Fold this protein.
Amino acid sequence: MATELGVSVSSLYYKHKRPFIDLEVKSQIEAVLLEHPAYGHKRITLTLKLSKKRILRVMKKYNIKPYRRRAKKRVKKDDLNKPETIYTNFATKLGIKTSMSDKGSPWENGYQESFYSHFNLEGGDLTRFTEIWELLEHLYTQI
């Protein structure tokens, strides 16, 4: 049968080794994404110390995608003149400046805005901490 198809007999019995290796890499990628859901292929590559092409191939093969933030909703004109929240009132009473840029002007301080968005994304729900030291430990590792 192999000669009729024009292939060697050994190729009929060949078992690929790559799927077993790929399953191991897949589990490593999923472990990294479980800990850091926002990591893309570049950060996963640095964390696992594997090649970028290999990580991308396995992610594509098993349809693994990192968490992506959705586009922000537009601000309604009615919402612009609403009173400040309790937290901002409390912060201003303590003399804390909550933002270095004007409202609706993130281009004035893009680095800080980017930091806070990534900090909130990777931090997740901060109410999951039962003790203050757990929260402080998490903040220390993030910063």
